[in-house]
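$ fold --in a.seq
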Amino acid sequence: MKINETGRINSINPYQRNAESQRQEQMKKSTRKDEVSISDEAIKLLQAQNSGKIDAERSSKIESLKQQVSAGTYQVDAAKLAETLAPYFKQSSEN
């Protein structure tokens, strides 16, 4: 009569290892926290906005554009638009 059957012991160990690894994964998931990172450029923009360094010329230009768009008098310069979009389309056609 054999008391310690090697086949039985080895079959239990994989189950225990699997159960232990699942417990560890659940612990990692439960202790994981959300994380937010803000780029340096975004921080600079936020600081400039909060400190009141809004350029008066830029804000007046924006207001003028808003009025033109709402009145329906804003005209798009097609040549300038094409010049700006051309590099994008060249890059996307290469990929």
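$ fold --in b.seq
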Amino acid sequence: MSGATLVAGAGLFALLEWVRPSLWPVTTTNARNTTHPNAPDSAWLLADGPLSTHGRRVLDVTDC
């Protein structure tokens, strides 16, 4: 029984990962020198924070 649950759960996860981009398209925006991103009120904010010069997320800001 647990094997069937695992297979069904994995199948559902794979299906949702395949369908998700067409349900909720992701838009990335960057803003400088602001504490509030320029996004519509209905937007779902997935992540925010500082970026490196290469565009990668910085986990801890020590040199401001």
